[in-house]
Amino acid sequence: MTQQNTDTTVTGARGLLLAPLRFAYGIYAIAVFLVMALCTLLATLFLPGVQRRRAAARAGARAFLWVAGMPLTVRCLDRLPDGQCVVVSNHASYIDGVVFTAALPPRFGFVIKREMNSVPLAGLLLRRLGSEFVERFNRNRGATDARRVLRNAVSGNSLVFFPEGTFSRDPGLLKFHTGAFLTAARAGCPVVPATVKGTRVALSPKGGLPRPGRIVVEILAPVMVAAESSEIAASQLRDRAREAILSELGEPDTLEAAHPTSEAA
Known about the structure:
The protein has 265 residues and is of the alpha/beta class. Strand 3, helix 4 and strand 4 (132-134) form a beta-alpha-beta unit. Helix content is 49%, strand content 12%. It has a 7-stranded mixed sheet, with helices on both faces. The chain has a single domain (11-257), classed as Glycerol-3-phosphate (1)-acyltransferase, CATH 3.40.1130. It has helices at 3-46, 50-67, 96-103, 122-128, 139-154, 179-187, 199-202, 230-249, 254-258; strands spanning 72-75, 86-89, 108-113, 132-134, 158-161, 191-197, 215-219. It has 9 helices and 7 strands, in the order ααββαβαβαβαβαβαα.
């Protein structure tokens, strides 16, 4: 038997031995999440004021990640401005919202796809936390939602966006939509790029049960631009924020893959 065949056999045997442990952990992590989510929902139903509810959600999210064996490290949190800002991050997994709830101060609200509003219990929890829901497929309703989000931002609230709007099964940074950046430009506040790493392992977008692993959120340097119009400013903010995230993230640029630069002959 060759060395390669031996290594393959050992790897396969190890996988079979670990499979029951991974299954047991996955069921455990789901159970922990459901318990923590229910406790958080109950707290938000009785606590007055959105800041108190967000603080309770932050505590619940941190407790879940710790108990579930997904330790969270937040780097450079001091880069967040003291005042209003818009945080934008790459999106890699369904668990990203939980991670950023744990990572950021409770003054931040989330902008979320409208489909989540109709999810039983989850929609109620998100509404109690002051989340903003945005329609992605109906243009008229999407425009109405965007105006509401803008009014929220103009009134001084700090928001969190995942500007890709979704995530892919494979690693890679997708195209950024301009909504987050137009909101920041019109509100006159900085955009703060951020990266999240480790959530693709913790809850893979390819499906399957959760897995343990370290999760790291890094806050990058705030971005501001001066431009003749909010539309131009939004475009510049989008490009600069995406470049900063791509540089730190270490994942492929899907835009470059879709439109490769032609080499000179």
